[in-house]
Specification:
Length: 33
């Protein structure tokens, strides 16, 4: 069960990251880090 929850969290994080990159652009990501 723990593995399933972890996979869900990772998937959500990947989706959010993709949306953020599309919205702001790759240059914003570099400056954020």
């Amino acid at each position: 069960m723990g593995r399933k929850k972890l996979l869900m969290v990772v998937t959500m994080a990947a989706i959010m990251a993709t949306l953020y990159i599309r919205k702001s652009g790759t240059t914003e990501i570099e400056s954020a880090e």
